[in-house]
Predict the 3D structure of the following.
Amino acid sequence: MLTTAPHLYIRRPSPTTAEFTVTTCPPLNLPLRLLFLLIHLARLLLAAAAVLTLYARFLFDPAAIPNQPNSPRPNTPSGQPDTLNGAGVDEALTHLRAGQIPLFLTTLLTSAHLSPAGLTLAHFTAPLPDWALALAGMTVLYATLVRFRSLHTTESVLVLRGLGIQICRMIGGGGGRETRFIPTEKIRDVLINEAFRGFEVRYYLVVVVEGEEDVVVLFPGLLPRRKIVEAVWRGVRGCLEEGSTSTGQGSTGKGSQGKGSQGKGKGG
Amino acid sequence: MSQSLAPECNEIKERYDTCFLKWYSEKYLRGIGTTDNNECAVLFKEYSTCLKGALKARGIDKLLDEAREDNKENDATLMGKKKSGYITARWDLVTRLYELAIFAWNYGVVTRAAKGFVVLSLVFFLIFLPVERLATREGNLSDGLMRVFWPADLPRSDLQGVVVGWKNSALDVFVVAVLEEVEPRNVEFALKVGTLLRNAPHPVSRIYELCGQSTINVLGLANVPDTADVDPSWIRATVVPGCQIPAVTCSRASSVQLILFERPQPERMQYMSLHPIALALDDKHDSFRQEVPDGSEDDDEKDERRKKDHKKRLVEKLRQHSISKRIPSEKEKALAKIVNQINWAWELETLLQKNVSRIGTRPKRSLSVSERVVESATTARDMMLVWMWNLFTAYVWPIIKRIFVMGLMGHRIAAELLLRILEWRAQPKYAALKDISATAQQVEIRLQQFCYWPMQYVTLRRRKNDWESVTTSHPDYIRFYNSLWLVANDVIIGIALGSYIIDNASWVAEEISQLLSQYTVDALQTSISWLMGWPAGLKLNNELGAFLGDLFLWVIDYWSSCIVALRPVLPHIILFIGFSSFAGASMPIALFSDLLSILTVHIYSFYLASARIYHWQLNILISLFHLFRGKKHNVLRNRIDSCDYDLDQLLVGTILFTLLFFLLPTVVVFYLNFAIARMIIISLKAVFDTMLSCLNHFPLFALMLRVKDPGRLPGGVRFELRDTRDFDYSLNDPSPPPTSISVVHLKSVPLKFTAMFHQYFQMGQRIRKHYLSPRVLLCLLTGKFVPPLNRKNLYSLQYSMLPARRAGVMEMWDAVNSLPEPKKRKPPVQVPILTNGKKFPSNHSGGRSRGYG
């Protein structure tokens, strides 16, 4: 439900410029957007919890806060179990305004740890030995912040006549992207190739670049189905080469669903 | 008069011709003397007899007769009163024509003309027609797309202006500036004359050379009303102050590709480049690796190369699939040029805007008296300063410079000597001193750097005499300051470290001797005596264990006595290391690394010995096992053949096999012990080497630059397609533009962090490939010697910042002396502000020249 099979979007403001985007992100509507927002929130919450447990176990120093007037606060009946310690946050904010970032972080984490939620967390993780906790915390942090940063994979190819082809891969949910530009002068050919991958044959687009020891694969992460690959190939050829604008086919906007039957069970 | 056909008649013909002409011009044409028309008849008769004779001799008279026969009627009708005169004139003409025809025939003019005609028509059909057809087709094709490069940070205003820039091809334009409130005609004239580039700080030809165009052109008009008529090849831009994107149209183009870019600031040394900036000197270490003769190349490297070749062949095969080779068009080839033009855009626009006020007529105005008084008062102080400065540069500066250069050269010569010693090899294959010792290598790197700096400095100084937009020396700049900074850092850390070591020399020496005796003597002794008993319940062969253990213990005893002898000297060594660290923290690290390898020589030799014993034993066991099975190893064919052994052979072999097999565990434990010790030492040395390479070649300056100003470290370009809708609605005319516009943003991508540390990754990969491969594991298991990684390969990183060949002493002398003299400061001259009398109160100047902050 959260992802679909890779499908194609084409943006073509003029016949000489086109952007082909292959993404696994389904067309967004309101419930889906809300769901994604929730998932992201849960992810961040998980990461924060991991940081908090790691801090409480290894860096938290109970002796450092006896003089704080709000230390008995956790023992008070918890009216709002999920909010942080109010006074601690205030103090942290004053530190932030003074520009003392480490102090701000420490204060914030301490107050978070002393809040009911933090104490519950510490209570639950107490039976784990140190090394297991460290390992688990690091794994959760890595998984939430690095590995599953975004749910979808999006890759795009921008073709500009007279300039070249630009390959782009979105990194994470934000605006991070990794691009590579190949000038037309260097492009020797754009072709579709086939290869075994696991037990199937995949068709993929290749740019043969002059003076480079490797060919450049378009959409390397997704390797979309043959229909998409063909559509992109036609578009790229039509866009890149002068005098063949008519072959570009006016297939704008609609993505083609890659559900064809090109499995071709060659793999053994 | 022309010559007669027969040379013998020349004279007669001459006479007759004169006579005839005289008669013709003086009498016949004036209509007098009509009565006597035969005054030249005598002469003519003479001539005709002579010619007839000649013709008869050549056989042409018959032809003549025939021709005359043909034309008789014509002649007859025309013959009037002036019959005889006419006949003479006609006769003359006919003979001339005949003469000409015969001459032409004789010399083959006709055939030549025919040939020429055929060739020309062939050329026309085969070359000109297709070319013309192609040209028309090309013209039809390419007029579709117009490419406009437009600086996104160009100041926007709704005043009318003239768009000025480079015209890379008919439909490929690069906008440099919009000059406001000037006439396009005047601008064109000013560009042609060069007024707009006046007062340039450096030669103007450099601009044209690097931008690849010979002229700056007027490209179009900005913010003109639709009614104004514009040259069809010009663009018509509408710039709205609130709107990011200008609307650009051109009557000749059906679609427009508008490429917006942010101009890099040359004075901040920003620039744009298609390829990532090279922090290391490019391709150097490759050549460095190729220096090794093929025989001594490592296996893994051979393997790597074989793989590379295989891949290359595959890709080459793939390349052969493309049937047609596209010929890149002008537009496509222009990209590199355009990147240069982008780099120049800022400086050029500043220059143009500065000179806008010169366009058009300008009234001359001299200073008033009061202004002159103020001016002379302000310049008096400056004059004084300039005079003192000139004195200094004339007398003091040369001496200082001389002394400095002399010191530099002395240093250079000393460095050359030392480098020669460090690089000296007895034979080309033998290791030089720098390959063996880390200290020697460190000294060599420092000396090489000292040799390279003056050269780098000279290149950087030359940069000052050129435009700021010339970007070729920017990587040099980064490299130079990176290495300077690293050395400074190194020295600072070294001073701290050195003073600590010197202050606590005795304690450090004590600690080190403690460590030495604890780990290299005591720990070894205890581990060996542990192995001599039954370690971990393993039942070893007592006798062999005792023998091997006693052997090693004996050597260790000897070694420990050596260390005891060393102990009183150790504080001095430590003191020496401490003092050496004032030359940088890398020196004590290198010294410690060398000290470690010297003081653990006994472990190295133990490892070698036990590995050899183990390896032999294993080999014997394997061959005896073959014997045990009735097989043997055929050396010639490198395979296992079956072999019939005699009974006694079999018996002895089997007994030996059993013996050796039972003795094997004892040897294995000793071998493992020393192998582990050796591995620990190797990893310790690897730690030292990593520290060294960090101190020597960490891209510190580049990292700081990346954080401070990513524009200075270009890693390529990126295009971003903008939605055309963004700017459509902001234009107030509701009708959609007739041309389709795609708006693309061109941005510079900063260098990736991985690219900065590329060298480190490469080194790490090489180390991993060398030490953590299954091959090494196999070597360890079979007791083969694990060769240490070739120092040269490992430290290609260290040399990546240095040129492969260092500049010689004389080269450096020339370079240092070629530095330009410091400029003499001229007394400040107040240039009156030029005005062209236009009505802009905001500025002093008439045209709008813009100030840049």
About this structure: The radius of gyration of chain A is 26 Å. The first helix of chain A runs from residue 30 to 59. The first strand of chain A starts at residue 7 and ends at 14. Chain A is about 35% helix and 20% strand.
